[in-house]
Specification:
Elements (H helix, E strand, L loop, with lengths): L15 H19 L5 E5 L3 E7 L7 E5 L16 E19 L9 E8 L3 H4 L16 E6 L4 E4 L4 E12 L6 E11 L15 H17 L14 E2 H12 L5 H13 L10 E3 L5 E2 L5 H4 L2 H12 L3 H18 L28 H22 L3 H22 E2 L4 E2 L9 H9 L5 H13 L9 H14 L1 H20 L35 H8 L4
Antiparallel strand pairs: 1-9, 2-3, 2-4, 4-7, 4-8, 4-9, 5-6, 5-8, 10-11, 11-12, 13-14
Bound molecules: alpha-L-rhamnopyranose.
The site of alpha-L-rhamnopyranose has 8 residues, from helix 4.
Length: about 550
Amino acid sequence: MLPSRLNDPAALLGPAPLEAMRSRRQEWLARAESLKPVLKINERLPVGLVSVVNDPKAFQGCRMEARGAVESVLGKPLKTGDSFILDFGEHLTGRLAFSLVEPGEAADAPLRLALVFAERPCELEKPFDPYPGTLVRSWLQDEVFTLDHPLGFARVPRRCAFRYVKLTVFAVRDGRTAFEKVMVEAQSAVEMDEGAPVPPGLSPVAAAIDLVSRRTLRECMHTVFEDGPKRDRRLWLGDLRLQALANGVSFRRFDLVKRCLYLFAALPLEDGLVSACVYDEPRVRTGNTRIPDYAALFASTVLEYIQESGDRAIAAELWPVAARQAAVLLSLVGDDGLAKVPEKGWWLFFDWNPELDRQAPLHGAILLCLRRTAMLARIAGVPDEDARVYGDAASKMEAAARKDLYDEAKGFFVSGASGQVSVLSQAWMILAGACTPGEGEKLLTRVLRESGALPPVSPYGWHYLMEACALCGGEAAGAGRRIMEDYWGGMLDRGADTFWEVYDPKNEFLSPYGDHRMNSYCHAWSCSPLWFIRGGGFVR
Ligand code: RAM
């Protein structure tokens, strides 16, 4: 049995944390504002012309083929119907701009251009419409841009994320205007070579994954850590934790991590749970989303930030937020010490695999949260008698996990009424300390051989398996390295120059949104191999 007050968030440490959060909101917002980075803008030029070709052997059935030098379209008088695709050589985030000249007589009529920006060839393979997806169509990056006076410098207003851009001349006074130069004003809070140098002695595959992870992270670092620069362009706590880990061993821009922590602290939901996401544009505000497994990561993210940056003062400052997360999350734990999947009002994420039973992962996430909260309490200077509740609650949940969620016959942690065996149930239980690293090592090596164990489908899900592997060490660490090389290396083999939101080697068209073109092909949470390569210690 849990001590009864642990089941009652209002009773746990009283209302003080919530009141402290409310009273400090303005101060935290002001601190976040003072840490807003000035973005670095670099002009980037296209490296060639390409066209999309259908190829059943290529990923998603299409690929780019080179079509000559950019110079062949520069200076050439434009005609209605002209169309070409520029390749910028790597994923960029920013605004397309160009300068136009008059090759002969004055350009006396507007230039109307159709633009399609693409992270991957699939976005240019066929028209976006009819659009079958479930997310709003406007995330797809097509624009019509009309320039009244097609002479001199012009900039497309929308910030886009892309490697390729298709330009089609809808209408122009034929022959009166020409592109002199087409460029991207690429933006990020960081430059590629900033921060820690690439460690020497990496294997070729680790070096390639390191580079693409770093580029993925750079592309997601703007005035906040965004989840994806194409979509949703917002700060999510689950993504932030992995970005912050990768940032700690690469760009080391701790100001941006701190800014994001303040934003989450200042913009919670009514009951003090941190919102799973917050918006930064056009002004900061809460995203109103309850994801327990994200809120459970708040204390971990603060702790890891302290470990990397040495900024211990933030522990006491953000302590009320961490305390409040533990209190609200404990409302999901029954008297028997087991986490219960709430019926409504919450979104349990963990991965994009809809078949995942989330009860055991939820149990692990809350247990991990309690342990990290107890650690943070020590740094924050919380008196032992107040901090003890977290350790006590963790012990109860650990015992309940071993008693009721471990299936001796199957030899795995199981989840929900169906007793599902999944990769993620093992990973979260191990990370939460529901078993020893030695037991975890055996569990992981077995679950990876078990064909019936449900796998994740996103780099986010696979990250937590790799983190469990790194924690257990031994054979599991080797398995972690192979997962990284196969899964992230698999994206590289399929032409990734940034890592993706979703990747299922068995289903190239998988999308949580009903259209693979809506997937984000430069996605924050997939940058975490950088952390394993540079800090996790198992991938040299
Ligand atoms: C989507 C994004 C984001 C993720 C949430 C849960 O909106 O992919 O990265 O954190 O879902």
